Amino acid sequence: MAARRPLIAGNWKMFGRRASLAEIGALSAQVGGSVAALDIVLCPPAAYLEAAVAAALGKGLAIGAQDCSPAIEDAARTGEVSAAMIADVGARYVIVGHSERRTGHAEGNALVRDKASAAISAGLIPIVCVGETREQRSAGQAATVVAAQVRESTPASDAELIIAYEPVWAIGAQATPSVEEIAEIHGVVRESLADIIGARATATRVLYGGSVSPSNAAEIFSVHGVDGALVGRASLKATDFAAIILGHPAAK
Ligand code: PGA
Q: Cβ contacts of residue 156 below 8 Å, gap of 6+?
């Protein structure tokens, strides 16, 4: 089996302004030749996608959106942005099913799967997020909850997709699971993925997300089955995000 190429994605959420796009050039300068060994993706707010694509041009960095419509065809859907539009402005990835959308916008697994399918139809690579809440983990349900989310949120497609395991309680917190817990759930993700996409699960990248920082990145990247990270807060400043990227053993 070919080794899975590491991928580190930054999710700016609803932070930053046009001026923040200067971080893209700074990031490129700081990570240097590492772009040859790993995929680096930045997901700015939708309003800045096209400008971010322009800023990233020729730098070996890819741009992604944070959400997309589940509708494949153009439609009267005020406020929504289609996967086709995201692809049209030159972005290559899209996050779907982030817990802030599952919780704050009542998005369930079926909708997340439709969004991932729409992304694939448009030629984008979806980053499908899954993860248990604090209550579910305390009740010993982390593995079963994540397994069900993976099975129900992943389209049975031959196209490339990425899974991000993001325990809800670790997002925007100061806490992460232990390395053993991360390894366990990454194993669960890959097994559940195999139920949907078969042997291609082995080649599918599974990221960890939730409070990844320059101080814990190297340890998280060393965990078996972790192919990279989805980073929130620490991706907003090039120095922090570069420090995380350079903490990956594949980086140079
Ligand atoms: P965080 O966010 O790194 O700020 O915890 C991660 C995410 O929501 O993807």
A: 196, 197
Task: Give distance in angstroms: CA of 98 to centre of ligand 1.
Answer: 10
Give the pLDDT score at 176. Answer: 96
The DSSP bridge pattern shows strands 61-65 and 125-130 to be: unpaired
Q: Which atom of ligand 1 is nearest to the CA of 170?
A: 5
Q: From atom 3 of ligand 1, which residue's Cα is the shortest distance away?
A: 232
DSSP strand pairing (93-96 vs 61-65): parallel
pTM over 0.90: yes
CA dist., res. 80 & res. 29, Å (int): 34
**Closest residue by Cα to residue 23 from 243, 211, 244, 235:** 235
Give CA–CA dist 245/40, Å, rounded: 8
**Look-up of token digits 């120095």:** 239
Is 135 noted as a catalytic residue in this protein?
Answer: no
The radius of gyration of the chain's CA atoms, rounded to the nearest angstrom, is 17
- Ligand 1 centroid, distance to 235 Cα (angstroms): 9
Neighbours of 219 (CB within 10 A): 12
Inter-residue contact 227 to 206 (CB < 8 Å): yes
Q: Using alpha carbons, select from 129, 202, 193 the residue that is nearest to residue 157.
A: 193
Q: Which residues of the chain have pLDDT under 70?
A: 1-2
| Residues 6+ positions from 192 with CB-CB distance below 8 Å | 146, 147, 148, 150, 151
Give the pLDDT score at 2: 67
Structure tokens given for 154: 């992943």
For residue 233, give the ligand 1 atom closest to its CA. 4
Q: Give the distance (Å) from ligand 1 centre to CA of residue 120.
A: 24
